[in-house]
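Hey, quick one: can you model this chain's 3D structure?
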Amino acid sequence: MTNTHSFEAIVTAMFDCVPDPMVRLGPNGILLEQNEEAEAMFGTWAQGRSYVTLFRQPTLAQAIEQVLQSGVSSEAEFIQTSTAGAERFIVRITALPEANLGIVLHFEDVTHLTEVEEMRRDFVANVSHELRSPLTAILGFIETLRGPAAKDPAAQSRFLQIMQDEAQRMNRLIGDLLSLSRVESQQRQRPDQVIDVMHVVSRVQAALRPLVEESGCQVMIQRPDDVSTELRGDSDQLTQVFRNLIENALKYGGQNKTVTIKMRHEMGQGSLKGRLLCVDVIDQGEGIDPLHIPRLTERFYRVDNHRSRAMGGTGLGLAIVKHIVQRHRGRLKITSEQGKGSCFSVILPSE
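Sure thing. Here's the predicted structure for all 351 residues.
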């Protein structure tokens, strides 16, 4: 009897220490004990009830029954649904035959792992699709050049130009994939070099001069004298950020419009504290439907697939921008008004 009580005390102590939901069922399948996490999940009414009424999912119920009968530990999946969505758990079912105490169920939340796996599958599928399209076009034109167009110089020149465009599209995609991978691998390492964001933006403006002239647009930088633009950052990565944002503003803002870059300070709130440097890239384009704004930084998300591809977009630019800004412990804010234009704000700690 003493050994039974000692073993039961150990199980109870374990319940208090483990941060995951845990319950103990008696040999007859009645819930005898649950920790606070399990109580929050199933409610106090679960005490004294049979697993048959508690867990109305056949896979878990069958696994519990087998462990109660055989004494051999097992595991099963359990899905908890609520207004917030579905949570997935791996339930490890351990028999306690030493003192005839029944079985213990340990619920491990694997919702995040499941979401990550789904994101990985979606990412691979998207990359495969994005690469397959230009590759299929190139292979098709190679076949045409070997056949019907073999003796047609005009057709050859036209097809070779298309093949070059598609190859460059693949090259841009691979470059962006590598860039995204590098940024993600450095996510935990905040840059520690002191740089001047004004110099970064000025260099980007100079590099984009051919595109500015082609679009007939003007790029105006507004920086008050009392705004300091020095901070800790990675010059190359922030160049990538502002090149992407300014290039998008020129491409999607419309011909003969003005792209304005405003630099200002504001005091942080919440997770971003202290003095912040805000760089707003403002265009005069058509604006973006509010439904699209929360998803703009998702990989391969495009508001207009055809238009984006026609302009050379890979669907990864804003995802890269978001990760670079996060590496700098900053935030990317997007606001837009249809018919008036959009504002992409890069908000960075400046202290």
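One thing worth noting: The CA atoms of residues 120 and 126 lie 10 Å apart.
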